[in-house]
Amino acid sequence: MTTAELGLREAKKQETRQLISDRATQLFLEKGFEGTTIAEIAAAARVAKKTVTNYFARKEDLVFDRQEEFVSSLARAVAHRRPGESALAALRRDFDTAVATQDPVAGFAGHDFSRMVADSPTLSICLRGLHDRREQALVEALADAVGEQPTDITVRTAAGLLSAVHRTLFQRIQELTLAGRPNDEIAAVLAPEAARAFDLLEPSLGSYAVA
């Protein structure tokens, strides 16, 4: 198979994956997560049930189709911090950018999507698990940054504090979204609130894991 053929094959796979995800999201919004079956999703996407499960191992994965991006987001920001920049400064800068661009991965997912997740016990539990996985990824990134083991108590405490701020801010975005506030207003509220939240960590982590 030529490089061009491989490229077309991969593009087709991504197109099919996105189609399945889009059709599933439509059904979830209409019928609720628990009220929608894999068979209905397959029918809506005009694919076989096995095709759906080949692309998405769990039903929850159809909702959180950018979960790996979410899980790796904090670790990635630390790994890409600028020379002389601490982990806190890098994470703060990255979050400011996410707010300015109203990034869905940071929580700007819209009212209907956020309500669907909040109303589903299964999705709410899954979301908490994604936050936990994101914190563990941050532990590993910080350990690498400071040359310690992931079991080091300072590394784990730093990751816990940094993750807690991000989790709190994510929940704040969800709270405002569910209250019916548009993204522009939420971003305007979050910018100063995030500054205050990150300021609380400056005395303890302002010089931690400087590149």
TrEMBL record:
Superkingdom of the source species: Bacteria
Signal peptide span: none
DNA-binding region: 37-56
Keyword match DNA-binding: yes
Keywords of this entry: DNA-binding, Transcription, Transcription regulation
Alphabetized SUPFAM superfamilies for the sequence: Homeodomain-like
Recorded GO MF terms: DNA-binding transcription factor activity; transcription cis-regulatory region binding
Domain HTH tetR-type, first and last residues per copy: 14-74
Listed Pfam families: TetR_N
UniProt-listed InterPro entries: Homeodomain-like_sf (IPR009057), HTH-type_TetR-like_transc_reg (IPR050109), HTH_TetR (IPR001647)
Name used for this protein in its record: AcrR family transcriptional regulator
